[in-house]
Fold:
Amino acid sequence: MLHLSYSNYAALRAHGEDTYPHECCGVLLGKSEPDGNHVRETVRAGNTRTDSAHNRYNIAPEELIRIQRQARKLDLDIVGFYHSHPDCPAQWSKTDFDEAHWVGCSYVITRVDQGKAVITNSFLLSGASEEDKTFLDEPVEIEVRENATELEQEKGKA
Amino acid sequence: MKINIPTPLRAYTGGEQTVSVPGATVGEALVQLTGAYPELRQQLYTAEGKLRSFVNIYLNDDDIRYLPHIESTPVEESDELSIIPSIAGGCRGNL
Structure:
């Protein structure tokens, strides 16, 4: 199961709306626990596929190196990635599968229709090697506690 | 020198996120790494011994494929190697 706060869930969906009609992409930082990947931070990344940004994405390795350093400073790990499918199903494509190499990580896909985030799904890349990898449908748990706390704090300020 | 191991490959390094190995060049360090953790070899290299196309190895901020001496590039103790599998995809080719 993928666990993420409402604010992180909203952030990755908002990214897909911001870049529409192009695909967005980013990295999920957190911890891998026995009950699944727990996301603590989402990090926006640039899509280098400017030649076909409406249906392809790529994160530059240099940016991944920088994000991995950022994760180490926060004592977090890269536990997944997200991207959007503009006007396409929130389902992994053959391209997504062929280009997925981070076994154990969550791949989150948001369908964005006409600029509006509609459906967000997660797929866990499973397997022991590149040759036997597979995408598994991964339930997503949205933790609303953090958001509720923020709301309470905002109420307190009012 | 220190080698940063990405999340999916830590299963082959006993969970270690960084590994320290001796070596005077990038290639020597990688030989030491796969010698210490043999299961990493097939994750990083093809059966023909070539670095898999989706595996990026960076010496500090430089892709070793584009260094003039590639794996023969000399390294110092303070240098860092990072292994970064590529991240790409997109809805084109949706099943």
